[in-house]
From TrEMBL:
PROSITE patterns: NLPC_P60, PROKAR_LIPOPROTEIN. This is Hydrolase. Belongs to the peptidase C40 family. InterPro entries: NLP_P60_dom, Papain-like_cys_pep_sf, Peptidase_C40. It comes from the Bacteria. Keywords: Hydrolase, Protease, Signal, Thiol protease. GO terms for molecular function: cysteine-type peptidase activity. It comes from Alkalicoccus urumqiensis.
């Protein structure tokens, strides 16, 4: 648990440093729909949920079960497996990603599309990891970056609200760190 807290805390420092605002960062402002914000909130609720191959319930998820559940809770039906989910919505280039887009990875445990997650901004995604369960990671991670395959915009484009791209990331990090700190305090009290 301490290792996980240190990892999340380190990621928080990196991401929060990216959350500062200045004139030169104005290109980081992007519009995304309130629906995307709802998707990110639902995804964050499951941070820390364990991984289980084939899992698609709130007790345990695999990657595509997690994505399917989050979107289903927001009124969007998706197929069950990542390779089928990769055919849904609209193709998006990596440099045009918006929070709420689904990102896909190939050759992670089998050939072709074999993993996915939800883009949250600032080149980070939330996904169901075999080793950590539902967690936030950088898409520049040494393992994930070379395996990037594609992205799809599942949510309908609509009346976007202009928010700094870092806001969803900061929101998720703040809530995740608060929850992890509370869990650590409980475990220390119980010990």
């Amino acid at each position: 648990m301490v290792k996980g807290l240190v990892t999340v805390a380190g990621a928080a420092l990196l991401m929060l440093s990216a959350c500062t605002s200045s004139e030169s960062e104005s290109e980081e402002i992007q519009a995304f729909s309130p629906a995307a914000y709802e998707v990110l909130q639902e995804a964050e609720r499951h941070t820390g949920t364990p991984y289980e191959f084939g899992g698609d319930a709130t007790e345990a998820f695999d990657c595509s079960g997690f994505v399917q559940h989050v979107f289903e809770e927001n009124g969007v039906d998706l197929p069950r497996v990542s390779r089928d989910q990769a055919q849904e919505g609209m193709f998006v280039t990596r440099d045009n990603l918006q929070p709420g887009d689904v990102v896909f990875y190939q050759n992670t445990w089998r050939e072709g599309v074999s993993h996915n997650g939800i883009y949250i901004g600032n080149n980070h995604m939330i996904h169901a990891s075999r080793s950590e369960g539902v967690t936030v990671i950088s898409m520049d991670d040494d393992f994930w970056e070379p395996k990037y395959h594609s992205a799809r915009r599942i949510l309908p484009e609509g009346s976007g609200i202009a928010l700094d791209a870092a806001e969803p990331t900061a929101f998720l990090l703040q809530r995740t760190l608060t929850r992890l700190y509370a869990e650590q305090q409980r475990s220390e009290t119980d010990a």
